[in-house]
Amino acid sequence: MFGMRDRSYRELPIRFADFGVLHRNEASGALTGLTRVRRFQQDDAHIFCMQSQVKDEMRGALDFMSMVYGTFGFTFALKLSTRPEKFLGEIAVWDQAEQQLRESLDEFGAGWELNPGDGAFYGPKVDITIRDALGREFQCATIQLDFQLPERFHLQFRTGTADEMSGFQRPVIIHRAVLGSVERMIAILTENFAGKWPLWLSPRQVMVVPVTGVVYEYAEKVKQQLHEAGYFVDVDVSADTLNKKIRNAEIAQYNFICVVGAQEMEEGSVNVRCRDDVGTKAKGQTVPVTAFVQQMDVLKNAKSLESKLA
């Protein structure tokens, strides 16, 4: 895509996102749930830039990675993987690439370790290892500097100089994946949250529990209001007792349980029990439906990891 037409230095950096399907012929004994599969998708990006732009692009990639993992509540460790025994290109080019990555990591400010000889055959890379809530380590993200593929594919861009001979340069490619394998990340998130998904990720956000059949219609009305506000909502109209309905919703890890009775129907309110707020489990707090929606909007927009009302 880069080489399909002439490119100018004014266009750089060019960033291509690639969510293509990848295949890896893993041995059958190595396959493990979603963490190691033969067919997966990866959030690849390929950034074409000038030598002078490498530091800024690396810093942008590291900042982006930090923002994403911070949102999920993960801590991470950085490793600089350097030239392996079998490599392409000249040693001087490798040394230059590794030095640029060192400087980028130093400017990023987080601690990092050297991982000698573990780079890709076409360039050095930064491997990011994350820790989940149980302290387990997973290697997901990677940022790789590539000076070799532009040479092999004869990629070039105009530098803006008048001299035709020196008016072209090779770009540098930065290969970046933040989530890594999407399937593996889903598995890690599932285990990390142990079913207690934060509101903005949860497939079970609100359960409406009517006290008696008299308020079934009001419960459906509340469901509709919350659904129109953009939330996943269910109503338990089974023949179970009130305590059983609440317990079932707790086991299913709904973020919020809204109990409605005659008083709530008269006031246009809900009695809210928050999954992550122990103080509301015995007796919830009664709030108007509109106020409840506003408080959930605050949690969702802030991407809070805890489901607690202000």
Brief characterization of the structure:
The chain is an alpha+beta fold and 310 residues long. It contains eight helices and 15 strands.
Could you outline the blueprint of secondary structure elements for this entry?
Elements: E1 14-18, E2 21-23, E3 39-49, H1 54-72, E4 75-81, H2 91-108, E5 112-115, E6 125-131, E7 137-146, H3 148-152, E8 157-158, E9 168-169, E10 172-181, H4 182-193, E11 206-210, H5 216-228, E12 233-235, H6 242-251, E13 256-260, H7 262-267, E14 269-274, E15 285-288, H8 289-302
Parallel strand pairs: 4-5, 11-12, 11-13
Antiparallel strand pairs: 1-3, 2-3, 3-10, 4-6, 6-7, 7-10, 8-9, 13-14, 14-15
Question: Can you walk through the features of this model?
Answer:
- The chain has helices at residues 54-72, 91-108, 148-152, 182-193, 216-228, 242-251, 262-267, 289-302, and strands at residues 14-18, 21-23, 39-49, 75-81, 112-115, 125-131, 137-146, 157-158, 168-169, 172-181, 206-210, 233-235, 256-260, 269-274, 285-288.
- With 310 residues, it is an alpha+beta fold.
- The strands form 3 sheets. Strands 1, 2, 3, 4, 5, 6, 7 and 10 form an 8-stranded mixed sheet that branches.
- Helix 1 crosses helix 2.
